[in-house]
Amino acid sequence: MAHAVEVRDLVVIRGKRTVLHGISTAVREGCVTGLLGPSGSGKTTLMRAIVGVQRVRSGRIEVLGRPAGSPTLRREIGYVTQAPSVYPDLTVRENARYFASLYPGVTGRDADRAIRDVGLERAAGQLVRTLSGGQHSRASLACALLGDPRLLILDEPTVGQDPVLRDELWQRFHALAAAGTTLVVSSHVMDEAGRCDRLVLIREGRVIADDTPAAVRAGAGTDDLETAFLRLIRQREEVSA
Ligand SMILES: Nc1ncnc2c1ncn2[C@@H]1O[C@H](COP(=O)(O)OP(=O)(O)OP(=O)(O)O)[C@@H](O)[C@H]1O
Q1: Core-most of 5, 170, 175, 179, by most CB within 10 Å?
Q2: What pTM value is reported for the model?
Q3: Which domains does the chain have, with CATH numbers?
Q4: What is the pLDDT of residue 20?
């Protein structure tokens, strides 16, 4: 299967700390790849590097066959950060229509469909600054979907969503993947890991597993991904001790 993203020996230093210590991984096209790891492990930094907005010390990243950060990639990548990326003083619909207007051929009808796709139709006329945290991040997701990106990078998109909405969002992610979009979704919630096609587990800036959920479970000798993650961490600690 072709790779949408290839990362080789990536080293990133932020402030005075080495945050990514020579990471190598690849993201398969048309899959949902989960980036899992504890808070501060480097998930956002890796996503920023893939999107091309993170200064890297060394290593190589290819995205859709081009070096990360290439201007021609801008229209092909949708990136939803943890920070709000929609205008607070516009309604959800106004935001979606504004972002739709930035893409040739994307219409107001597409904007309305994106709002429906993230389950925000009842809040479409509401000012973004009055939305709940979960609604706010779904508004950002709707706007990121508008350009029909080939690669969607979603930083903790299910934070603050109730279980029903989380389930709907995961169904939506898989529908997008089935239609050919590649998704990279970060989370530190292990029960979401099992919903990914592939997992990249990161700890302290190093990849400690890169496989399907089933293979990660089998490799660690447990059915539970949280236990698998803990076992992988302990194995690493024993090897480096
Ligand atoms: N602007 C910055 N300057 C210096 N260090 C930073 C900066 N942003 C993040 N870091 C550090 O880089 C490390 C990795 O952070 P990153 O945000 O990539 O982790 P994460 O796995 O995404 O965490 P979370 O799950 O909490 O979002 C952390 O130690 C963090 O303190």
Answers
A1: 5
A2: 0.92
A3: 28-55+150-241 (3.40.50.300), 85-149 (no CATH)
A4: 98
